[in-house]
Amino acid sequence: MGERILTGIKPTGQLTLGNYIAVLKNLRKMMDRGECFIFIADLHALTLPIEPETLRQNSIDLAAFYLAAGLDPERSALFLQSSISAHAELNAIMQNYLYMGELSRMTQFKDKSSRMKENAIGLGLFSYPVLMACDIVLYDANTVPVGEDQVQHIELTRDLVNRFNNRYGKILTVPKASVTKVGKRIMSLSNPLTKMSKSDPKGDIFLKDEPMVIRKKIMSAVTDTGSEVKFDAVNKPGISNLLSIYCAMKDITIKEAEKLFVGYRYGEFKKVVADVVIEELAPFQERYRKILADKSYETALKEGAEKASKIANETLKRVKKAVGLLTID
Question: Which end of the chain is more exposed for a tag (fewer CB within 10 A), N or C?
């Protein structure tokens, strides 16, 4: 089997420039590399409270964003996680092969639960990595593009696959994480020590933001002492973040960008960063609006689910047979 790639985004809020750089911008390259399964993780979105209409609209937006970014339904499968029942069914099986100690050590769970009252922490939030592992193994994915904050989940999935295969034989494929080198972690413009994460109206660039709003946010971005435009994540986190954004949008290295901006003042540098972001996002937003209007996302999601369900059901059947569940064709 060649390279099979799986990636998904939760429809829990407005997508940011960070999402665009980490996933959407790389869709064409991903499709050139191998067979792609791209899903909207709507079941994962239920792990924290969300209004039903918000979830529905976010899912539509996400499908339209994927298509606007260049996803070709003929070369990949775009689908809703909830439309493939094998995700939930495999989850019911695989939750028996990961342990509470492992799940309680997951950084994202500890971070999110620490900000919640204990009686408000749902089982779904705790067992989130189990369903994520099922998302991956259902499609025999060997490559999973993720942000740095998700690498721990991929490592847990690898542990699960090895544990399962050691017991039952080579049933599941061992995945590996693929982290984008440039722009792998885009930070907030208002606080460059925290990730751009759908929740900071001033520090996050949302994919629906008008060009004027994008320019204002970048021009207002927090910078650092001194005047040199150079990458130094510790001493110059604000400028380093803007450099990362520029490099990701132009597909160049940090060193190449540093040479370009020798002698630039911070204000001049910010203007150039704003220009390149708007230059790319404006036509992307126009395509998004067209897709929403003609509802072409509906056909793409339906056809994608048909493709995905064939692969997922084969894997599920293989797992059920391995563990001893009686299956009658």
Answer: C
Residue 120's pLDDT band (boundaries 50, 70, 90)?
low
* 176 is an active site residue: no
Question: Can you state the angle between helices 86-94 and 296-323, rounded to 10 degrees?
Answer: 30
Name the nearest CA neighbour of 270 among 244, 242, 233, 241: 242
Domain boundaries, the chain: 4-182+295-323, 211-290
Average confidence (pLDDT) over 194-215: 87
- State pLDDT tens for residues 212-271: 999 999 999 998 888 899 999 889 999 999 999 999 999 999 999 999 999 999 999 999
Catalytic residue among 112, 230, 307, 317: 112
CATH 3.40.1190.10 fits 4-182+295-323, yes or no: no
CATH T-level fold of 211-290: Tyrosyl-Transfer RNA Synthetase (1.10.240)
Considering the candidates 25, 29, 176, 195, report the single residue annotated as catalytic. 195
Active site residue 236: no
- Decide if 128 contacts 109 (C-beta within 8 A): yes
Q: Are 183 and 148 in contact (CB under 8 A)?
A: no
Q: What is the CA radius of gyration of the chain?
A: 21
User: Encoding tokens for residue 91?
Assistant: 């989850």
Is residue 217 flagged as an active site residue?
no
Helical ranges in the chain per DSSP H: 17-22, 27-33, 52-68, 86-94, 100-104, 107-113, 123-126, 128-137, 151-168, 211-219, 237-250, 254-260, 266-294, 296-323
